[in-house]
């Protein structure tokens, strides 16, 4: 079983950047496809980006395309989410998640979750 810990959240002005990290322990991250999700108050938890085990395939929600970049370093057991040109509507708690099968866009397909990190974008 893998444990996930997110870091890197914070408060940033609109147009700014943040870089989130998700560090894994317990098992090697290389066997898991990974996703970054976000949840704003009163809303569902939605997929932001996902990446395959090797990093060769990625998926982005339309709302973050061209602004966010997901990547991974399996040697460091870490997944990253680089967020640029941030907007107030990006404000949410961001979660990383892992699944042992292929990349998925569905929240229900992910088996392991971190505790989340808060991102707040001020206008």
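^ Assign residues to that structure.
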């Amino acid at each position: 079983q893998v444990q996930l810990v997110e870091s890197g959240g914070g408060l940033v002005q609109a147009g700014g950047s943040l870089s989130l990290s998700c560090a894994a322990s317990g098992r090697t991250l290389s066997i898991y496809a990974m996703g970054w999700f976000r949840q704003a108050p009163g809303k569902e938890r939605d997929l932001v980006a996902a990446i395959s085990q090797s990093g060769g395939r990625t998926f982005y929600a339309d709302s973050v395309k061209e602004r966010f970049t997901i990547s991974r370093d399996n040697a460091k057991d870490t997944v990253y989410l680089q967020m640029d040109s941030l907007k107030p509507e990006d404000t949410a708690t961001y979660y990383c998640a892992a699944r042992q099968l292929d990349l998925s866009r569905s929240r229900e397909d992910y088996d392991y979750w971190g505790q989340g990190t808060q991102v707040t974008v001020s206008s």
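The CA atoms of residues 9 and 97 lie 16 Å apart.
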